[in-house]
Amino acid sequence: MNVSYDWLKELVNVPVSPEELADKVSRTGIEIDGVKHPDAGLKKIVVGKVLTSKPHPNSDHLKLCEVDVGEADPRQIVCGAPNVAAGQTVIVALPGARIADNVKIKKGKMRGEESLGMICALQEIGFNENVVPKSYLNGIYVFNEPLKPGSDALAALGMHDAILDFEITPNRADALGMRGVAWEVGATYAEKPHFVEKPLTEGTKPIADYLSAEVKDAQDAPSYQLRVIDHVKVKESPLWLQRRLWNAGVRPINNIVDITNLIMLTYGQPLHAFDYAKLGSKHIEVRRAKNGEPLTTLDGREHELDDRDIVITNGQVPVALAGVMGGLNSEISETTTTVVVEAASFNPVNVRKTALKYNLRSEASSRFEKGINLADINHALDAAVAWMVELGGGQSAKGTLSPTAVEAKDVVVDISLDHINHVLGTDLQEDQVTGIFRQLGFGVTVADGLFSVAVPPRRWDIHIKADLVEEVARIYGFDNLPSTLPTTTMTIGEYTPKQKRIRRTRHLLEGLGLTQAITYGLTTAKAAEQFKLQPGKPTQVDSPMTTDHAVLRMNMVTGLLDVIKYNQARKETNVAIYEQGRIFTKTGDQVRPTEIEYLGGALTGQVTTKTWNQDARPVDFFYVKGIVTHLLEDYSLTEPVRFAATQAVAELHPGQAADIFVGDTRIGFLGRLHPAFEHDNHLPETFVFQLDLDALFVAPKQEKIAQPAPKFPAVTRDIALQVAETVTNAQVMAVFRQHGGAYLKQVKLFDVYAGEHIAEGQKSLAYTLTYRRDDQTLTEDEVTQAFDRVKSALASDLAAEIR
């Protein structure tokens, strides 16, 4: 809520600057997001009087204006506004002035004619378009009262004020009115607000001669009050009222509508005004809408209502959505002469649901949702009618129509001094606590350390002792509360083994150059069925907000592919990302899905870009396999990890995909996306992997044992063998592990060749074998014997020809 500092000072004594006030109030419970000075950066902007206005000789849309700006001679100013005319009092920026966006105004010529300044629209001096009166949206602003030429235009427009941005939480809706803010600020500085009530003089004609009213269900409108004003003249509001509204972020409309907004800003009580003649009857009925019943609201939008909506009707058709927005069919206009003013309390749940359903969030609905001061409903209504009588020249009918009403009572809460001090850890005295309650405007009596606190209806958020303790803490000052350590025994928290493993996995992947992504757990039905590691049924969302978020995910890959598409659309072509999260799957008659920890990754583009000393290196299958291998090695699995070519995953390239096994358990897959899948989904060449972390968590592990660096030298042997193309490196490595002997420490593939000098259907693989003993130096015979056993096993098991 935008709070005017000048208006606030009219309601309560404020002994500090706006910035100090913002800091103090923020520390007592209501955050102030900032302080805005509308005149910041503006200068040399004055009031001007247009003496003459004639067409520019060299333009069909510009005008030459003689403008009195309080100097000895008028200034000639060229103006292009369509509404400029002689006799107007306007805003003038003189040469050397600074207007919005730090634009400097200079002397100049326009189409050959001298222009010594600028006649300004409100937007040009920093007003938001949302608060500019509609009649001045496309032209200059014209003051509707006489002002002295040359006087400060910024002062006339209220721009020397300071605007405090109060961030009102739902529990403090009492501060959605200036009076509530005044009570809050007064409590903070021990100042009592001073409100001036607007007296209402009623006419002699009873309201019953104009109108009757009925509320079908008192739960929909517990309090419903109406007044009638006759013989009003609808016109532009006086400047002081316009200032109040636009400094609060509200657009001025006309004097009647502006008064309802003024009262809402003052009391926090929304009002609505109906054109009596447009109602079409002398009866108002509050009821539920009928299913399919139409209503066009003030914003011009047509709505088809249902029986959850509360409507105001003329006895037959709706004329307003209760608590949300009025209907276009009863709008106040320049022809209005008799006005019906409504002040009420509506069911907050229905108001909230109606506003959300039709996307009609308004200042009124926001207040009705959070609550209003029931004690001020009639006070606000009477004040509004009094202003309408004064500014509209009308006459109030005698009396108020009140088909439903509530009695607003103080809430009495008992609390002891010992309880307050125990909760806050303070040593406050009885007179201190009594003073705090009185600062807040609460009635209080005290006897033997027990306070009986009467909380007025304007603070409907307070009901129990804990609420009073909070109020004492706020006003006493949170920063004044003592700091004490707990006296109970403390349990030192630590990560579970599963949490540690997950964090370790994240650190490893980030060390390998991948960036963590977090995607939606909801996806489409089609995407949920893709990249599945295990069979299962999807889990549907009962009421999805969109079809793109209708099913719980069953894989981690599709969400990452959405991230890649998002980056590709923004010219980010080198992407390496991973996500650790849960998938959801059901089997049989499960109602609640099983949640399984998964890890997914997706890489596209280049691993390294081209520079002066290296070529670009694109992501490929073996690069991704290396990442997965490095990650799995860190798990210290007892059973060996193996990769087996697969065509089981339809979304992967049939020649560049592999299942990942730990022993005989399939725990994941990796590979390139199928080219057809890439084309259909507008993806570049992309490689993905997916692992079942829960399966890895329960897989047998071997304990890591630190060993000293070897003291004895290693011996290497190179071997090249020719095998069938169907023989895999994994098969060869298995032979090495099985027959290499106790001293074989490492095997490394360093060359693969097929082509000239190699028989068709054959390939050549070359390995380096490293042997080492930890207790002594190996002899040549030991290495030769071990190497010969490997060669024999390769020949017998794989039909390999040693080259």
Structural summary, described in words:
The chain has 803 residues and is of the alpha+beta class. The protein is built from 21 helices and 42 strands. Strands 28-31-32-38-37-36-35 form a 7-stranded mixed sheet. Strands 3, 4, 5, 6, 9 and 10 form a 6-stranded antiparallel sheet that branches. Strands 12, 14, 15, 22, 23 and 24 form a 6-stranded mixed sheet that branches. β20 (318-321) and β21 (325-326) form a beta hairpin. The longest helix is centred in the last third of the chain and has 19 residues, at 780-798. The mean pLDDT is 94.
Average residue pLDDT: 94
Report the sheet with the most strands, covering strand number, pairing sense and barrel closure: 7 strands, mixed
Radius of gyration: 40 Å
Structural class estimated from helices and strands: alpha+beta
Note the gap between the termini. Answer: 85 Å
What spatial order of strands do you see in the largest sheet? 28-31-32-38-37-36-35
Strand content: 25-35%
Q: Report the strand count.
A: 42
Q: What is the tally of helical segments?
A: 21
